[in-house]
Amino acid sequence: MLCIALMAVMVAFLAVTSRVTVRTFERLEREAPLALFGKGPMEAVYSALEPFARGLAMLGVSANSITMASLVLAAVAALHFALGHFGVGALIACMSALADAVDGLVARQTRTANRFGRVLDTTVDRYVEALLLGGIAIRVHHDAWVLAVVLAAMVGGFMVSYASSMLRELDVPDPGSRMRRAERLTFLIAGATLVPLLAEAAPDVAPALQLSPLLAALAAIAVVGNVSAARRLLGAARSAPRPTSYEKTWPTSSQFLIQRESRSVGGTDERRRSPRARCDADTV
To answer: Can you tell me where the transmembrane regions are (predicted)?
Structure first.
């Protein structure tokens, strides 16, 4: 029943947000639109969370504490995934994702956004995704093919993040990418939510087939994520500015002598000492 309620809320939410115009958010500008729905659902979520974030800011809750709360929730969700409780795990994972959205809103409300908070948020994002996929991997570790799909999805997510970092490092414009973090979490949570629904609708189905919605979501993350990352990295390699070329030149004899003389420091070179100085130095 919990999974049915969660799916009903998601469907109603998408139906409402597809017709309601909401304002844009700076953080969502770098996110790719969701397939079939665009950025409307993400913008609607941020709009709905703004009053909640404002209340937390008035209560004195810091953005960093919310970030750490999302990490704790992700660990609890991973534990439920590892135990096979995919419905409860999906609900807690959804709470973790919402907490990750709230921390940035609270930071802007309290004007406490800083470099440390940005580093903490980015680091926790990586751990959250690793925890969720790690919990699923523990659950399916007995099936090599299913485990390979989970690991491929993990690699795809990390490669998308790596490609974004590499484009910033090379100062290359980002053409946009599919399967960024918001889209990956949407696929993962939706797939995990459908697992118990399929189990209730078809209890006689083999356990491996009951995981098919989650495996389909993870396969999409793996394929689209890795292909998108490879495409962006190849594009960055082609369009990145080339390093300044130089020709290797050998020094002339006079330059060589000048360099050799400059290596002697404080008159310690034997050739630059007087005979008396060399004699005194030898007797020390």
So the answer is: 144-164, 185-202, 214-234
Burial of 252: CB neighbours in 10 Å, binned 0-12, 13-18, 19+: exposed
CA distances from 71 to 54, 97, 110, 115, 209 (A): 21, 9, 21, 19, 30
What's the number of domains the chain is made of? 1
Q: Look up the domain containing 55 and give its range.
A: 2-239
* 8 Å CB contact between 225 and 159: yes
**Could you tell me the mean pLDDT of each successive run of 10 residues in the chain, 284 residues long?**
49 44 52 55 73 88 93 96 94 92 87 88 92 95 93 93 84 75 89 90 79 93 91 82 54 56 52 46 42
CATH number of domain containing 163: 1.20.120.1760
Q: Which residue type does 283 have?
A: T
Is the pTM above the cut of 0.90?
Answer: no
Closest alpha carbon to 127 in 90, 157, 150, 107: 157
Domain-embedded: residue 46 = yes
Residue 175, C-beta contacts closer than 8 angstroms, at least 6 positions apart = 232, 235
| 3-class DSSP state of 266 | coil
Cα dihedral: 132, 137, 140, 146 (round 10): 110
